[in-house]
Amino acid sequence: MSAVVEKPVALDEAAFADLKAELTAWVTGPGEEWSERIEATGDVPPELFAELRERGYLSLAAPSELGGRGSRSRATSSSWRSSPGRTRRSGCSCT
């Protein structure tokens, strides 16, 4: 059985703004709760990966030829890094 890979749709400015708002809301809401749980237990629960997969967040940076959205472009990355209110958590090595 082969998997059907859909071609990603390029995000226009409005769709990107919507996605960015959605991600920001998740990160500052449920994402913080997951973070606290992970820091308390030292474990990343499988339920977190299931939630991220269901929301489509795990495919954001994957190349479109591998079934991802291919959203990681220089414009996307620099726009996200320069977002107002975006801060780096202590100990996070992400940029």
TrEMBL record:
Domain of life: Bacteria
Name under which the protein is recorded: Acyl-CoA dehydrogenase/oxidase N-terminal domain-containing protein
SUPFAM superfamilies recorded: Acyl-CoA dehydrogenase NM domain-like
Region feature Disordered, mapped onto this chain: 63-95
Low complexity compositional bias, start-end: 73-95
Organism from which the protein derives: Luteimicrobium album
